[in-house]
Task: inverse folding
C-alpha cells in the first residue's frame, strides 16, 4: 500500500510539473529536473547495491523520471541563463548546443531502452545503472562544473 502511495504521489508531481516549469527561472527548473533524476538514480543505485530490495514499481518510476526529465532538460538553457541561481552549467552548453541536446537525447533513448527490457531483478538494475551511468558521466564531464 505504501508503494502505491509513492507511485500516486510521483504521478501527481509530474502533472504539477508543467505548471511549475512555466513559473520558474530556467536555472531553477533545470536544477529541479536534475534533482529528480538524481533521486531516481539514487533509488536505482540502492537496489543495484542491495541496500533496498528489488521493486518493479520503483524501477519503472525511476526510469520514467529519467526519460521524461532528460527530454525536458535541454530546453531550460536559454540565452541569458548562463549564470545565477548557483548554476553548475559550463559555457560549453551554449557553445555546443547540438552536442548538449544529443547527450540528453542519448540519456532519454537509453532510459527508454532499459524500460523496454525492464530489469527484473537486482542484477538487471545493476546492468541498467552501468548503461545509464556512462551516459550521465559523459555529459557531466563536458557540460557541468566539476565538484
Result:
Amino acid at each position: 500500500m505504501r508503494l502505491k502511495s509513492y507511485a500516486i504521489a510521483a504521478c501527481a508531481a509530474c502533472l504539477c510539473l508543467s505548471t511549475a516549469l512555466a513559473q520558474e527561472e530556467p536555472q531553477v527548473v533545470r536544477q529541479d529536473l536534475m534533482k529528480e533524476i538524481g533521486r531516481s538514480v539514487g533509488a536505482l543505485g540502492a537496489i543495484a547495491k542491495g541496500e533496498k530490495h528489488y521493486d518493479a514499481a520503483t524501477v519503472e518510476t525511476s526510469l520514467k523520471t529519467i526519460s521524461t526529465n532528460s527530454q525536458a532538460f535541454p530546453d531550460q538553457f536559454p540565452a541569458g541563463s548562463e549564470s545565477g541561481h548557483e548554476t553548475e552549467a559550463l559555457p560549453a552548453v551554449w557553445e555546443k548546443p547540438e552536442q548538449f541536446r544529443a547527450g540528453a537525447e542519448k540519456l532519454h533513448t537509453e532510459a527508454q531502452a532499459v524500460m523496454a527490457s525492464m530489469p527484473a531483478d537486482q542484477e538487471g538494475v545493476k546492468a541498467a545503472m552501468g548503461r545509464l551511468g556512462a551516459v550521465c558521466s559523459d555529459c557531466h564531464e563536458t557540460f557541468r562544473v566539476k565538484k
User: Anything to note?
Assistant: The domain at 2-143 is CATH 1.20.120.10 (Four Helix Bundle (Hemerythrin (Met), subunit A)). The mean pLDDT is 90. The CA atoms of residues 65 and 100 lie 19 Å apart. The helical segments are 2-23, 26-48, 56-72, 92-95, 97-116, 122-143.
